[in-house]
Amino acid sequence: MTLAAELPVHALRAARIRQLLRLLLVGFYVAVLLTEPPAEQLIPCWVIVGCYLVWTIGTGFLATADPRAQRLLWVALVVDVAVLTLLTLLSDTAATQSWTPYLLINGFFVIPIIAAAQLNPWMCAAVVAPTVLVQFVAGALIRNVGGEPWSYVVLRTVVLSAVGLGAVLLSRLQRARVQRIAGLLADRTALLEELLVVQQREQQDLAEVLHDGALQYVLGARQQLEDVAEGDPSAGQRVDEALREAARLLRSTTSQLHPAVLEAAGLPAALNDLVETVRARQPLQVSLIVEGWDDRLRTPVDSQLFAGARELLTNVVKHAEADRVQVTLRRDGGEAVLTVADDGRGMGSVDLAARLEQGHLGLASLRVRMEAAGGGLGVRAGQPQGTVVDLRLPLLE
């Protein structure tokens, strides 16, 4: 999910909020004209309010029926300001004493709130600034009706400016939240896609291990049984060796598939089986170093570290073109650190966020999983070549 896909949904909700606020503004106009009707220009004021009501209903219907039209509905904010200004100036501006314009001018405080429903802070600011200016001009024109001092006009403008600034900041906050939500949805979608890829890859690796490894030893042992039947004295030993190797490969494969093995044997033993499996299947010099880790230690992050090691070793085998790889498990204060270092071609400068956006999901999705667990993933260049990847997770014993 991208920001472009998420914006229309929030824009539709914002359009409904703007329509509700405009209807409340119409109600405000009606209440003022009923309670404090102007002695002059009353009919034109009712006509303007009626037209504004029709306009509000029409724009609300248009925004709901055609989401593409929402981009053009910012023009309605200009109409809001124009209608309010016209009503204020028409209501007894020629009278010597009237409360109607002073009541109507308070409607300017609603305009910034309507503009805040926009997901574009710049557009909101472009509406708020003229609103403040027009309110000041209208206040200056009607001040003689009731003898309002200039200080009142200025203070009202200052308060409206503060409300407008708050509206712009609120609009910016809304857009930032939408962007954040879109980013989280993108990460979630990427992780789901990566999960499917990992599952397919694990199924393929399992099929290769069973077919090319254990199954071949079992078939070889079966062929050796014929030699045993013929009385070959060394055939029995070869059958035993083949079955032992098949059992070792099956045990190693099981340790990769079933997390219960981690509870039974511990993370170092499970990593050792993983290393032996890679060493047996690939022309790689794979080594394991365990520092400060008790074999009896069991932690909630064992399965995540093991899955991360398996994924990193798979990446090394498929992409690194390395001759040697070293896996290190150690404790660093309250953290567990798993390091996979190879002497391959290296990755250079890696921007994981950019790789995620571009669809390179391996390391990026692993980083997201580590960060979700309160840890992190670091990538750096090896010396003199290669790549070093560090997985860190808080060690909760």
Describe the structure.
With 397 residues, the chain is α+β, with helices and mostly antiparallel strands. The protein has two domains: 3-188; 282-397, Histidine kinase-like ATPase, C-terminal domain (Heat Shock Protein 90), CATH 3.30.565. It has a five-stranded mixed β-sheet. The chain has 13 helices and five strands. The mean pLDDT is 77. It has helices at 3-35, 42-65, 75-90, 100-104, 110-116, 121-146, 150-229, 235-257, 260-265, 267-281, 302-320, 352-357, 361-372; strands at 285-291, 324-332, 335-342, 376-381, 387-394. InterPro entries: HATPase_C_sf (IPR036890), HATPase_dom (IPR003594), His_kinase_dom (IPR005467), Sensor_HK_TwoCompSys (IPR050482). Its main location: membrane. It is found in: Cell membrane. It is a multi-pass membrane protein. It comes from Branchiibius cervicis.
